[in-house]
């Protein structure tokens, strides 16, 4: 085994476009685990809808969720570390979305709240296995928030992103998928969380492998001794990686593991 710690993004990487874990990918991940690598899902998802993927792999353990804003233990459902954000700072983004009639959700490590549910949003949550809870819009924003997520059409989010880029604020916003913008703590990232976990395990970064496909994966791809981008990644993500593999529709994770980790 060439690596002691292997970080895997879920959507667009581990799963195909139908959100299915193929047998080839599952078997390669299990083989890497059997040979001694710790497998860590490193995802923009929250723990609740990331854990079923980990269970389908037949694994348990530490997961880096919410783009690195919450690191949790899947067995005990314990939060090992989180980057909380001030509700007062989130309020500006919420107000913007309310004025523009844009769909959003509010996340603590294990909870997701919404204030309305459009047919498109309901379909999206179903695809990701998420079960948001409807909250009273007049209630104070929850404490312990780690992520505010905006969902919409690509062109719509392109315009929002351009406008938010001109804002001055103490948070960060990152495109975590074509249809999502995540707002979170300025220090939260998959790369920072993966570095922290490797340090805790006493694993040198040369013994860390990461596979991803989108802009929120760049930090972990550049930290890892071997950062691999799947073929369906944007060009900027490919440029950040050490190597490329096949797309998520072609079992890219399985091919990367067999080429770089299991060889």
UniProtKB/TrEMBL annotation:
Pfam families from the UniProt entry: Hydrolase_3
CDD domains (alphabetical): HAD_Pase
NCBIfam families registered for this protein in UniProt: Cof-subfamily, HAD-SF-IIB
Record-given protein name: HAD family phosphatase
PANTHER family (UniProt xref): HAD SUPERFAMILY HYDROLASE-LIKE, TYPE 3, PHOSPHOSERINE PHOSPHATASE
